[in-house]
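Researcher: First entry.
Model:
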Amino acid sequence: MGINMKGLSTKGLSLAYDGVSIIRDLNLAVPPGKISALVGANGCGKSTLLRGLARLLKPYGGAIYLDGQSIFNLSTKQVAQQLGILPQNPVAPEGLTVKDLVGQGRYPYQNWLQQWSEQDEIIVQQALEITDLLALANRALDTLSGGQRQRAWIAMALAQDTDILLLDEPTTFLDLAHQIEVLDLLYELNQHQERTIVMVLHDLNQACRYADYLVAVKQGRIFTAGEPQEVMTEEMVKEVFDLDCRIVSDPVVGTPMCVPIGRKGKVNILSN
């Protein structure tokens, strides 16, 4: 596989936790300027892959490239100025306010000569406004609801002002209305600012609706990847999730929609 000279890619990537192999010999080229969704069963390696792409986990084999360079040849500050990351279940110090958390997204641009600037303040305010958190800016993070906290973490990732955003289950803790709100926000960032977004999603139908590119992961390897219309098939869902389903057209946007069958569905099928 050729190295993607623009954006994020891997070649022969292998990752492990505590000596246990999770990702094996994986080749991936993230489409620049697009939204990509990683989907797969629990424990298949989606979050591990995202951590590897963010340089939070060192490979035991293969390589990760950022704009054609090995990501491990770049400084931490260089990576942080190009990759924004929202990990799964992030933790903040007790008593930290929403605005303080979002302000941490500007740390990659600080040094002993360049302290907090007017530009930093503008970007933090924009991140708070985009995520509808201006009214909660001075509230302590640990006093917020789960959904509000999640939006604060997303705002911090936005404040990094990077071309690439990596998000591990960004809709965690959110009710359905706020899930759509967050996904709409990410879609608008991609459409209007051409940010490359890679996110782990559990909801296949949301992944099909919002992603340009789907990566189905099974047991640490890419089972299939491509546009949702190509990837979302009954055979893929059965192989990757061990679930019988029917794939129909989403009545709102026309993207593939997975309708699980389950035991009750099988009874209805047999009785008809």
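Researcher: Second entry.
Model:
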Amino acid sequence: MTTSALGPRAGRRCHNPLNSLHAAHYFSPDLGRELGVLGITRPRAVNLAVRAAALGPVGAGAVTATFFNYKHELVARHVPAVWSIAGPADVLAARLRAVDATLRRLLGEEAVASAEMAEAAQLALRAAEACGRGARPLYSAHADLPVPEEPHLAYWHAATLLREHRGDGHLAVLTSAGLDGLEAVVTHTSTGRGMTPKWVLATRGWTEDDWNAAAGRLRERGLLDAEGELTGRGVALREDVEHETDRLDLAPYEHLGAEGVARLTALASEFAAAAAAAGAFPADLVGKH
């Protein structure tokens, strides 16, 4: 299968709804409830633990490096201390229980048990067969986990693999572009497609002073204007970043093939739209303000 057969952004268009459904559990009350049973009750500790658990009982440095856009001081406040409350294996099991409850609540039992869900799981897992482990720490760690038996959980697992595979490559591209973690977030927010500053500051540990300092560095580089909007150079840089990320993330979608990618995109979009309509995400999560 050639790149042109897929279309220039077919992989990205497929990844976006897959990533959306994966991310729904981060905002789910089911996640806080399941981690609370283990004794992990602070929201930031919950968030850090569930995504890092696949790496094992790692320290703050490994989490900051692989997450990229979290302030290290926030990470160090909870990691590795969280592993003394509950080990990674228990956290992963609790995460999967939360995902199960979340998908059943957002999509409904009929969708969870549907032939379309089973088909989506099969397609996403097939795509993930071609993901590479090299320089992909979060993907590789999640690839070591067993595939759940139930189709909706297998689909979520495969979506997670594809998300982390693209994400690992994306961080390499951002670093090559000379953007640090917060600068990358500020430029993404300025496109109108990233998290609002309110949510970045609430979840990533950064302060308004940190944000303003990052914006100042970007203005000095000619990437942001005085109003915080991307300049022409800034727009071009973000486009280059996404195109290079597409290139590094091409293998799973080439492996699946154009027809399979189109079908997976359609199914993933339906599930993601249903989850969003059911209130999976805060209304003010995405945007410039």
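Model: Note on the second entry: DSSP finds 17 helices and no strands in the chain.
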